[in-house]
Amino acid sequence: MLTLKVITENPEEVIRRLAKKHFDATDIIGKIIELDKTRRSTQVALDANLAKLNTVSKTIGSLMKEGRKEEAEAARNEVAQMKKGNKEMEATMREAEKQLRDLLVLIPNMPHESVPEGRTADENVCEKMGGDIPELGDNALPHWELAKKYDLIDFELGVKITGAGFPVYKGKGARLQRALINFFLDNAREAGYLEVQPPYVVNADSGYGTGQLPDKEGQMYHATLDDLYLIPTAEVPVTNMYRDVILNESELPVKNTAYSACFRREAGSYGKDVRGLNRLHQFDKVEIVRIDTPEHSYESLQEMVAYVQSLVEKLELPWRILRLCGGDISFTSALTFDFEVFSAAQKRWLEVSSVSNFESYQANRLKCRYRREQDKKPQLCHTLNGSALALPRIVAALLENNQTPQGIRIPKALVPYTGFEWIE
To answer: 312 near 131, Cβ under 8 Å?
Structure first.
């Protein structure tokens, strides 16, 4: 959530930058400024009234002692009227503050100046790419057929047990999943991330803190009886570990990693993009999360991008990094880099990671702050996160790109984790 100070001190700048996200903030910013004026003027009047009330109240006892009963009674009536007025002003302030909060959560984060113009994913900018795209024969199979041929993943059984988008991994397919999870976690720990194991369900405050609520409640599975939400990513519980926390500057950057299952309704998804592992309702992912100072957060972002690049390179996958344009970047992000790997049998790029800097947008919702030694007042942190990595499309690309007449080759970096070199 943008701070009220940023909006009221730089309204034209906020409107200009949000236009890159194709969000017209003119009306809502105007309403916020008017509500803030109402709140501030009411607060000034209330403070003056409270001071006067205090002064008048103190005179009542003295007037009674001096026998000036009529004046004392008049003072009592004046105090009663001022108290009534105070209650009305307090109610006005509460209503203005509520309306302010309701409006502030509707405003997306301002994009960083380096975010390119554009409305759709087709206008994202390719920053760099690497790896070799394999040349497969005409008889190359997509991963869902390979999964069936080698008895790795049973999509139909998942439909029977739960529904579409909940596959069952079997045999070497299950071992490949476990191998990738451990591989990603080990690499994250070696890169200085502290491993945590978070809950898979969160309360509404946590969803609000990282921006899933009220923006994306329709995409989250909601256990209505307990008012809990299944997490769409480990970002939510891990970042919320720092809700209402004041860190010392010496503790930053905080670096956490976590494996979790992820749950997404993916409402409205259909067509060829949902075949096999391309789009699931439940999937596994390892997440990296950083809490940092504003001065260092963009250096942290570049470090995270370089780290994710190292993972796809170790897996010997062809990859590219996209800088998301204004129309494709998320509601809460200031700058996002997407990683895609090439799926040779499908002949298409598959997104496997988003690495984002949210600046102070999430931290303001979370009240996640830090304190410099020389400052008494704490400042808002910057929060960042990235997929490192999401498994389904990594598995899809690994199966498709490494298929041979002899079977499916396992990348060398994964063999110590799988315990096998081939799927045959």
So the answer is: yes
Lowest mean pLDDT among 44-53, 167-176, 325-334, 411-420: 44-53
Cα–Cα dist 187/185, whole Å: 5
Nearest to 37 by CA among 84, 104, 121, 93: 93
3-state SS of the chain: helix, strand, coil percent to 5? 45, 20, 35
Q: What is the DSSP letter of 348?
A: E
Per-residue model confidence (pLDDT) at position 181: 98
Distance CA(81)–CA(85), nearest Å, equals: 6
Separation CA 45–CA 352 (nearest Å)? 55
Rounded CA-CA distance 290/371 in Å is 17
The residue whose two tokens read 């102070």 is 360
Mean pLDDT of 210-230: 89
Nearest alpha-carbon partner for 381 in 266, 274, 295, 262: 295
Which residues, at least 6 apart from 299, have a Cβ–Cβ distance to it below 8 Å? none
The two three-digit tokens of residue 348, written as one number: 């298409």
Who contacts 192 (Cβ-Cβ below 8 Å, separation ≥6)?
A: 255
**Any bridge partners for residue 319, and if so which?**
130, 341
| CA separation for the pair 237, 373 (Å, rounded) | 29
CA–CA distance from 219 to each of 22, 96, 175, 194, 389 (Å)?
22, 30, 29, 29, 21
Mapped onto helix, strand or coil, the DSSP state of residue 369 is strand
- For residue 295, CA distances in Å to 135, 191, 291, 292 come to 45, 21, 12, 8
**63 pLDDT more than 70:** yes
Residue 270's pLDDT band (boundaries 50, 70, 90)? low
Q: Which two tokens stand for residue 332?
A: 């809460």
- CA nearest neighbour of 239 among 128, 365, 331, 346: 365
Which residues have CB under 8 Å from 168's CB, separation 6+?
Answer: 153, 154, 155, 157, 158, 161
Token duo for residue 81: 């009227």
Residue 385: Cβ within 10 Å count? 26
CA-to-CA dists, residue 274 to 74, 270, 279, angstroms: 77, 6, 5
pLDDT score for 54: 85
> Identity (one letter) of the amino acid at 121?
A
Average pLDDT on 400-414 reads: 97
Q: Which of 181, 215, 153 is nearest to 361 (CA)?
A: 215
